[in-house]
Amino acid sequence: MRTQVGIVGAGPAGLLLSHLLHLRGISSVVLEARSREYVERRVRAGVLEQGTVDTLVEAGVGERMLREGLPHHGIELRYGGARHRIPFEELVPGRAITVYGQQEVVKDLIAARLEAGGDIRFEVLDVALHDIDTDKPYLTFQGERLDCDVIAGCDGFHGVSRPSIPRDALTVYEREYPFAWLGILARVRPSTEELIYARNDRGFALHSMRSPTISRFYLQVPPDTREEDWPDERIWAELKARLETVPGFTLETGEIVEKGVTPMRSFVAEPMQYGRLFLAGDAAHIVPPTGAKGLNLAVADVRVLTEALARFFADGSADLLDRYSEHCLKRVWRAQHFSWWMTTLLHTFDSDDAYGRRLQLSYLDYVTSSKAAATTLAENYVGMPF
Ligand code: APR
Ligand code: PHB
Q1: Same domain flag for 186 and 283
Q2: How confident is the model over 211-245, as pLDDT tens digits?
Q3: Whose CA is nearest to atom 3 of ligand 2?
Q4: Nearest ligand, CA of residue 209?
Protein backbone atom coordinates (compact mmCIF):
# COMPACT_ATOMS: atom_id res chain seq x y z
CA MET A 1 0.00 0.00 0.00
CA ARG A 2 1.12 3.52 -0.74
CA THR A 3 -0.18 6.97 0.06
CA GLN A 4 1.26 10.47 0.13
CA VAL A 5 0.46 11.21 3.77
CA GLY A 6 0.04 8.48 6.36
CA ILE A 7 -2.05 9.86 9.22
CA VAL A 8 -2.05 8.24 12.65
CA GLY A 9 -5.21 9.04 14.64
CA ALA A 10 -8.79 9.95 13.68
CA GLY A 11 -9.42 12.76 16.16
CA PRO A 12 -10.17 16.26 14.92
CA ALA A 13 -6.53 16.79 13.84
CA GLY A 14 -6.15 13.63 11.74
CA LEU A 15 -9.60 13.81 10.19
CA LEU A 16 -9.44 17.49 9.27
CA LEU A 17 -5.95 17.04 7.84
CA SER A 18 -7.14 14.17 5.68
CA HIS A 19 -10.07 16.27 4.46
CA LEU A 20 -8.03 19.42 3.74
CA LEU A 21 -5.40 17.36 1.88
CA HIS A 22 -8.13 15.74 -0.19
CA LEU A 23 -9.34 19.23 -1.22
CA ARG A 24 -5.78 19.89 -2.48
CA GLY A 25 -5.66 16.61 -4.39
CA ILE A 26 -3.26 14.96 -1.91
CA SER A 27 -3.91 11.35 -0.89
CA SER A 28 -3.89 10.09 2.70
CA VAL A 29 -4.81 7.05 4.77
CA VAL A 30 -5.95 7.46 8.39
CA LEU A 31 -5.16 4.72 10.91
CA GLU A 32 -7.23 4.83 14.10
CA ALA A 33 -6.92 2.50 17.08
CA ARG A 34 -10.52 2.87 18.26
CA SER A 35 -13.85 2.09 16.61
CA ARG A 36 -15.88 4.64 14.67
CA GLU A 37 -18.60 4.49 17.38
CA TYR A 38 -16.05 5.18 20.08
CA VAL A 39 -14.53 8.27 18.47
CA GLU A 40 -17.95 9.62 17.52
CA ARG A 41 -19.23 9.27 21.10
CA ARG A 42 -16.21 10.44 23.03
CA VAL A 43 -17.36 13.57 24.87
CA ARG A 44 -14.84 16.40 24.84
CA ALA A 45 -14.95 20.19 24.90
CA GLY A 46 -17.28 22.19 22.72
CA VAL A 47 -16.12 25.74 22.10
CA LEU A 48 -15.06 26.65 18.56
CA GLU A 49 -13.10 29.82 17.89
CA GLN A 50 -14.15 32.06 15.03
CA GLY A 51 -11.17 30.85 12.97
CA THR A 52 -12.10 27.21 13.56
CA VAL A 53 -15.66 27.88 12.42
CA ASP A 54 -14.36 29.71 9.33
CA THR A 55 -11.96 26.85 8.54
CA LEU A 56 -14.71 24.23 8.73
CA VAL A 57 -17.10 26.33 6.64
CA GLU A 58 -14.47 27.05 3.97
CA ALA A 59 -13.65 23.34 3.85
CA GLY A 60 -17.31 22.52 3.17
CA VAL A 61 -17.89 20.66 6.45
CA GLY A 62 -19.62 23.42 8.41
CA GLU A 63 -23.21 23.01 7.28
CA ARG A 64 -24.59 21.16 10.34
CA MET A 65 -22.42 23.25 12.68
CA LEU A 66 -23.94 26.46 11.28
CA ARG A 67 -27.41 24.97 11.71
CA GLU A 68 -27.06 23.39 15.16
CA GLY A 69 -24.15 25.23 16.78
CA LEU A 70 -24.88 28.01 19.24
CA PRO A 71 -23.12 31.32 18.52
CA HIS A 72 -22.12 33.08 21.75
CA HIS A 73 -21.08 36.71 21.98
CA GLY A 74 -19.83 36.73 25.54
CA ILE A 75 -19.06 34.71 28.64
CA GLU A 76 -19.79 35.33 32.30
CA LEU A 77 -17.24 35.39 35.08
CA ARG A 78 -19.00 34.73 38.38
CA TYR A 79 -17.26 35.39 41.69
CA GLY A 80 -17.66 37.31 44.92
CA GLY A 81 -21.45 37.02 44.77
CA ALA A 82 -21.77 38.87 41.46
CA ARG A 83 -21.86 38.18 37.73
CA HIS A 84 -19.61 39.96 35.26
CA ARG A 85 -20.07 39.67 31.50
CA ILE A 86 -17.17 39.81 29.06
CA PRO A 87 -18.93 41.25 25.97
CA PHE A 88 -17.19 40.02 22.81
CA GLU A 89 -19.33 42.20 20.51
CA GLU A 90 -17.95 45.32 22.18
CA LEU A 91 -14.36 44.17 22.82
CA VAL A 92 -13.62 42.15 19.66
CA PRO A 93 -16.28 43.26 17.15
CA GLY A 94 -17.26 40.72 14.53
CA ARG A 95 -15.74 37.79 16.40
CA ALA A 96 -17.55 35.22 18.50
CA ILE A 97 -17.40 31.59 19.53
CA THR A 98 -19.68 28.73 18.54
CA VAL A 99 -20.72 26.09 21.03
CA TYR A 100 -20.73 22.76 19.15
CA GLY A 101 -19.46 19.49 20.61
CA GLN A 102 -16.10 18.20 19.50
CA GLN A 103 -17.58 14.79 18.73
CA GLU A 104 -20.07 16.50 16.40
CA VAL A 105 -17.10 17.95 14.48
CA VAL A 106 -15.62 14.45 14.40
CA LYS A 107 -18.90 12.96 13.07
CA ASP A 108 -19.13 15.62 10.34
CA LEU A 109 -15.52 15.04 9.27
CA ILE A 110 -15.86 11.24 9.18
CA ALA A 111 -19.03 11.55 7.09
CA ALA A 112 -17.33 13.94 4.65
CA ARG A 113 -14.26 11.71 4.28
CA LEU A 114 -16.27 8.56 3.73
CA GLU A 115 -18.58 10.28 1.25
CA ALA A 116 -15.54 11.38 -0.77
CA GLY A 117 -14.18 7.81 -0.78
CA GLY A 118 -11.58 8.59 1.89
CA ASP A 119 -9.64 5.76 3.51
CA ILE A 120 -10.07 5.66 7.30
CA ARG A 121 -9.17 2.39 9.01
CA PHE A 122 -10.77 2.00 12.43
CA GLU A 123 -9.76 -0.46 15.15
CA VAL A 124 -6.24 -0.74 13.76
CA LEU A 125 -3.85 -2.22 16.32
CA ASP A 126 -0.09 -2.08 16.67
CA VAL A 127 0.62 0.94 14.48
CA ALA A 128 4.37 1.54 14.29
CA LEU A 129 6.38 4.24 12.53
CA HIS A 130 9.57 3.41 10.59
CA ASP A 131 12.39 5.24 8.85
CA ILE A 132 10.96 8.64 9.75
CA ASP A 133 14.42 10.17 9.40
CA THR A 134 14.58 9.15 5.72
CA ASP A 135 12.54 10.30 2.71
CA LYS A 136 10.83 6.89 2.58
CA PRO A 137 9.01 6.60 5.89
CA TYR A 138 6.40 3.89 6.37
CA LEU A 139 3.82 2.66 8.80
CA THR A 140 3.11 -0.92 9.79
CA PHE A 141 0.01 -2.31 11.48
CA GLN A 142 -1.37 -5.84 11.87
CA GLY A 143 1.05 -7.30 9.35
CA GLU A 144 0.42 -4.61 6.72
CA ARG A 145 2.76 -1.94 5.43
CA LEU A 146 1.84 1.56 4.27
CA ASP A 147 4.56 3.46 2.40
CA CYS A 148 4.29 7.24 2.67
CA ASP A 149 6.08 10.41 1.64
CA VAL A 150 5.23 12.02 4.95
CA ILE A 151 3.69 10.83 8.24
CA ALA A 152 1.37 13.02 10.31
CA GLY A 153 1.28 12.08 13.99
CA CYS A 154 -2.27 13.08 15.02
CA ASP A 155 -2.68 10.39 17.66
CA GLY A 156 -3.14 12.52 20.74
CA PHE A 157 -1.16 12.73 23.95
CA HIS A 158 -0.95 8.95 24.50
CA GLY A 159 -0.22 8.00 20.89
CA VAL A 160 2.79 6.25 19.31
CA SER A 161 4.03 9.07 17.09
CA ARG A 162 5.73 11.34 19.62
CA PRO A 163 7.50 8.40 21.38
CA SER A 164 8.88 7.35 17.95
CA ILE A 165 11.09 10.44 17.97
CA PRO A 166 14.44 9.94 19.73
CA ARG A 167 14.21 11.40 23.22
CA ASP A 168 17.16 13.72 22.80
CA ALA A 169 15.59 15.27 19.69
CA LEU A 170 12.67 16.71 21.67
CA THR A 171 12.48 19.30 24.40
CA VAL A 172 9.47 18.89 26.67
CA TYR A 173 7.87 21.65 28.71
CA GLU A 174 5.18 20.74 31.18
CA ARG A 175 3.17 21.66 34.22
CA GLU A 176 0.70 19.59 36.20
CA TYR A 177 -2.06 21.19 38.24
CA PRO A 178 -3.07 20.01 41.71
CA PHE A 179 -6.66 19.32 40.59
CA ALA A 180 -8.75 17.68 37.87
CA TRP A 181 -12.14 18.39 36.28
CA LEU A 182 -15.17 16.20 36.79
CA GLY A 183 -17.27 16.72 33.66
CA ILE A 184 -20.90 15.78 33.21
CA LEU A 185 -23.45 15.91 30.44
CA ALA A 186 -27.06 16.28 31.58
CA ARG A 187 -30.42 16.18 29.90
CA VAL A 188 -31.56 19.56 31.16
CA ARG A 189 -32.19 22.96 29.67
CA PRO A 190 -29.17 25.25 30.31
CA SER A 191 -29.85 27.62 33.21
CA THR A 192 -27.92 30.33 31.36
CA GLU A 193 -27.68 31.79 27.86
CA GLU A 194 -23.89 32.06 27.94
CA LEU A 195 -21.10 30.03 29.55
CA ILE A 196 -20.47 30.74 33.22
CA TYR A 197 -16.93 30.43 34.59
CA ALA A 198 -17.38 30.51 38.38
CA ARG A 199 -14.62 31.11 40.88
CA ASN A 200 -15.58 29.85 44.33
CA ASP A 201 -13.71 29.06 47.53
CA ARG A 202 -15.13 25.52 47.23
CA GLY A 203 -13.46 25.23 43.82
CA PHE A 204 -14.08 26.25 40.25
CA ALA A 205 -17.28 25.37 38.35
CA LEU A 206 -18.20 25.79 34.70
CA HIS A 207 -21.69 25.83 33.25
CA SER A 208 -21.57 25.06 29.54
CA MET A 209 -24.07 23.51 27.16
CA ARG A 210 -24.52 21.52 23.98
CA SER A 211 -28.05 22.39 22.85
CA PRO A 212 -31.27 23.95 24.18
CA THR A 213 -31.94 20.66 26.01
CA ILE A 214 -28.44 19.41 26.94
CA SER A 215 -26.16 21.07 29.49
CA ARG A 216 -22.49 20.42 30.19
CA PHE A 217 -20.89 21.10 33.58
CA TYR A 218 -17.46 20.80 35.12
CA LEU A 219 -16.33 20.84 38.76
CA GLN A 220 -12.80 21.32 40.02
CA VAL A 221 -12.01 18.15 42.01
CA PRO A 222 -8.89 16.61 43.60
CA PRO A 223 -6.61 14.92 41.04
CA ASP A 224 -7.19 11.40 42.43
CA THR A 225 -11.00 11.68 42.14
CA ARG A 226 -12.93 8.56 41.11
CA GLU A 227 -16.28 8.89 39.34
CA GLU A 228 -17.80 6.44 41.87
CA ASP A 229 -17.25 8.99 44.62
CA TRP A 230 -19.60 11.38 42.85
CA PRO A 231 -23.17 10.08 42.78
CA ASP A 232 -25.56 12.36 40.88
CA GLU A 233 -26.99 14.00 44.03
CA ARG A 234 -23.52 14.99 45.19
CA ILE A 235 -22.72 16.52 41.79
CA TRP A 236 -25.90 18.61 41.71
CA ALA A 237 -25.44 19.74 45.31
CA GLU A 238 -21.87 20.85 44.59
CA LEU A 239 -22.82 22.58 41.33
CA LYS A 240 -25.55 24.46 43.18
CA ALA A 241 -23.17 25.44 45.98
CA ARG A 242 -20.67 26.85 43.47
CA LEU A 243 -23.08 28.40 40.95
CA GLU A 244 -26.09 29.60 42.96
CA THR A 245 -24.07 32.48 44.37
CA VAL A 246 -25.79 35.43 42.72
CA PRO A 247 -29.29 36.77 43.35
CA GLY A 248 -32.03 35.27 41.20
CA PHE A 249 -30.04 32.35 39.79
CA THR A 250 -31.36 28.82 40.23
CA LEU A 251 -29.68 25.83 38.66
CA GLU A 252 -32.04 23.42 36.95
CA THR A 253 -31.14 19.77 37.42
CA GLY A 254 -31.86 16.70 35.32
CA GLU A 255 -30.68 13.26 34.29
CA ILE A 256 -26.90 12.89 34.10
CA VAL A 257 -26.02 10.91 30.98
CA GLU A 258 -22.23 11.01 31.03
CA LYS A 259 -19.50 11.48 33.65
CA GLY A 260 -15.74 11.68 33.36
CA VAL A 261 -12.63 12.94 35.14
CA THR A 262 -10.08 14.92 33.11
CA PRO A 263 -6.58 15.57 34.44
CA MET A 264 -5.32 19.12 34.07
CA ARG A 265 -2.01 19.44 32.32
CA SER A 266 0.04 21.86 30.25
CA PHE A 267 2.52 20.21 27.87
CA VAL A 268 4.54 21.15 24.79
CA ALA A 269 7.05 19.01 22.87
CA GLU A 270 9.40 20.92 20.59
CA PRO A 271 10.02 20.83 17.72
CA MET A 272 6.79 19.44 16.25
CA GLN A 273 8.77 17.72 13.50
CA TYR A 274 11.37 15.00 13.22
CA GLY A 275 12.50 14.13 9.68
CA ARG A 276 9.37 13.23 7.73
CA LEU A 277 7.15 12.97 10.83
CA PHE A 278 5.00 16.00 11.68
CA LEU A 279 3.08 16.12 14.98
CA ALA A 280 -0.26 17.95 15.14
CA GLY A 281 -2.80 18.57 17.91
CA ASP A 282 -2.64 16.81 21.27
CA ALA A 283 0.26 14.63 20.06
CA ALA A 284 2.45 17.73 20.37
CA HIS A 285 0.76 19.85 23.02
CA ILE A 286 -1.86 19.76 25.77
CA VAL A 287 -3.61 22.66 27.48
CA PRO A 288 -5.87 22.60 30.53
CA PRO A 289 -9.45 22.95 29.25
CA THR A 290 -10.17 26.25 31.03
CA GLY A 291 -9.47 28.29 27.90
CA ALA A 292 -11.20 25.79 25.58
CA LYS A 293 -8.19 25.79 23.25
CA GLY A 294 -7.40 22.07 22.64
CA LEU A 295 -9.49 21.47 19.53
CA ASN A 296 -8.83 24.96 18.18
CA LEU A 297 -5.07 24.46 18.36
CA ALA A 298 -5.37 21.14 16.56
CA VAL A 299 -7.26 22.90 13.75
CA ALA A 300 -4.65 25.67 13.56
CA ASP A 301 -1.78 23.13 13.31
CA VAL A 302 -3.50 21.24 10.55
CA ARG A 303 -4.15 24.41 8.52
CA VAL A 304 -0.44 25.22 8.61
CA LEU A 305 0.54 21.64 7.79
CA THR A 306 -1.84 21.52 4.81
CA GLU A 307 -0.30 24.64 3.27
CA ALA A 308 3.20 23.28 3.80
CA LEU A 309 2.35 19.87 2.34
CA ALA A 310 0.56 21.44 -0.65
CA ARG A 311 3.74 23.35 -1.47
CA PHE A 312 5.87 20.25 -0.95
CA PHE A 313 3.79 18.06 -3.23
CA ALA A 314 3.42 20.81 -5.86
CA ASP A 315 7.10 21.54 -6.47
CA GLY A 316 9.15 19.52 -4.01
CA SER A 317 9.96 22.59 -1.97
CA ALA A 318 10.28 21.87 1.77
CA ASP A 319 10.64 25.48 2.88
CA LEU A 320 7.19 25.69 4.50
CA LEU A 321 7.53 22.19 5.97
CA ASP A 322 10.83 23.20 7.53
CA ARG A 323 9.11 26.15 9.20
CA TYR A 324 6.00 24.18 10.26
CA SER A 325 7.03 23.74 13.87
CA GLU A 326 8.22 27.30 14.36
CA HIS A 327 5.03 28.63 12.76
CA CYS A 328 2.68 26.50 14.91
CA LEU A 329 4.55 27.03 18.16
CA LYS A 330 3.87 30.77 18.18
CA ARG A 331 0.16 30.12 18.43
CA VAL A 332 0.66 27.10 20.70
CA TRP A 333 2.56 29.17 23.26
CA ARG A 334 0.00 31.98 23.17
CA ALA A 335 -2.67 29.38 23.94
CA GLN A 336 -0.45 27.78 26.58
CA HIS A 337 -0.14 31.08 28.35
CA PHE A 338 -3.82 31.92 28.04
CA SER A 339 -4.94 28.49 29.29
CA TRP A 340 -2.54 28.60 32.24
CA TRP A 341 -3.69 32.15 33.02
CA MET A 342 -7.42 31.33 32.92
CA THR A 343 -6.74 28.25 35.06
CA THR A 344 -4.76 30.24 37.60
CA LEU A 345 -7.34 33.00 37.70
CA LEU A 346 -10.32 30.76 38.40
CA HIS A 347 -9.26 27.70 40.39
CA THR A 348 -8.81 27.28 44.11
CA PHE A 349 -5.21 26.45 44.89
CA ASP A 350 -3.81 26.02 48.37
CA SER A 351 -6.62 27.00 50.77
CA ASP A 352 -4.02 28.29 53.25
CA ASP A 353 -2.65 30.74 50.71
CA ALA A 354 -4.64 33.83 51.70
CA TYR A 355 -2.26 36.07 49.78
CA GLY A 356 -2.75 34.09 46.55
CA ARG A 357 -6.51 34.27 46.98
CA ARG A 358 -6.41 38.06 47.29
CA LEU A 359 -4.25 38.36 44.19
CA GLN A 360 -6.72 36.23 42.27
CA LEU A 361 -9.68 38.37 43.33
CA SER A 362 -7.80 41.54 42.50
CA TYR A 363 -7.03 40.25 39.01
CA LEU A 364 -10.65 39.23 38.50
CA ASP A 365 -11.74 42.74 39.49
CA TYR A 366 -9.25 44.14 37.01
CA VAL A 367 -10.40 41.90 34.15
CA THR A 368 -14.02 42.78 34.78
CA SER A 369 -13.54 46.54 35.18
CA SER A 370 -10.76 47.53 32.78
CA LYS A 371 -11.55 47.47 29.08
CA ALA A 372 -7.89 46.78 28.29
CA ALA A 373 -7.78 43.74 30.57
CA ALA A 374 -11.16 42.44 29.39
CA THR A 375 -10.00 42.77 25.78
CA THR A 376 -6.98 40.60 26.58
CA LEU A 377 -9.32 37.88 27.75
CA ALA A 378 -11.78 38.34 24.89
CA GLU A 379 -9.31 38.33 22.02
CA ASN A 380 -7.58 35.22 23.30
CA TYR A 381 -10.86 33.45 24.02
CA VAL A 382 -12.35 34.01 20.55
CA GLY A 383 -8.93 33.13 19.13
CA MET A 384 -6.07 35.24 17.82
CA PRO A 385 -6.26 35.75 14.03
CA PHE A 386 -4.33 33.22 11.95
N1 APR B 1 -2.74 4.15 16.80
C2 APR B 1 -3.78 4.71 16.15
N3 APR B 1 -4.54 5.68 16.67
C4 APR B 1 -4.24 6.11 17.90
C5 APR B 1 -3.15 5.60 18.64
C6 APR B 1 -2.39 4.56 18.04
N7 APR B 1 -1.35 4.00 18.69
N8 APR B 1 -3.09 6.22 19.81
C9 APR B 1 -4.09 7.12 19.84
N10 APR B 1 -4.80 7.04 18.69
C11 APR B 1 -5.99 7.81 18.31
C12 APR B 1 -6.96 8.03 19.45
O13 APR B 1 -7.81 6.92 19.63
C14 APR B 1 -7.71 9.26 18.99
O15 APR B 1 -8.87 8.95 18.26
O16 APR B 1 -5.60 9.12 17.94
C17 APR B 1 -6.72 9.99 18.10
C18 APR B 1 -6.26 11.31 18.70
O19 APR B 1 -7.34 12.17 18.76
P20 APR B 1 -7.52 13.29 19.89
O21 APR B 1 -7.09 12.75 21.19
O22 APR B 1 -8.89 13.80 19.75
O23 APR B 1 -6.45 14.40 19.50
P24 APR B 1 -6.46 15.54 18.37
O25 APR B 1 -7.02 15.04 17.09
O26 APR B 1 -5.10 16.11 18.41
O27 APR B 1 -7.49 16.60 18.89
C28 APR B 1 -7.19 17.48 19.92
O29 APR B 1 -8.81 16.44 21.26
O30 APR B 1 -7.97 15.70 23.35
C31 APR B 1 -8.87 16.48 22.69
O32 APR B 1 -9.62 18.25 23.87
C33 APR B 1 -8.56 17.85 23.07
O34 APR B 1 -9.66 19.32 21.75
C35 APR B 1 -8.47 18.61 21.80
C36 APR B 1 -8.45 17.69 20.68
C1 PHB C 1 -17.38 22.43 27.15
O2 PHB C 1 -18.48 22.85 26.78
O3 PHB C 1 -17.14 21.22 27.17
C4 PHB C 1 -16.33 23.38 27.57
C5 PHB C 1 -16.58 24.74 27.50
C6 PHB C 1 -15.61 25.64 27.89
C7 PHB C 1 -14.40 25.19 28.36
C8 PHB C 1 -14.14 23.82 28.43
C9 PHB C 1 -15.11 22.93 28.04
O10 PHB C 1 -13.48 26.09 28.77
Answers
A1: no
A2: 999 999 999 999 999 999 999 999 999 999 999 99
A3: 45
A4: 2
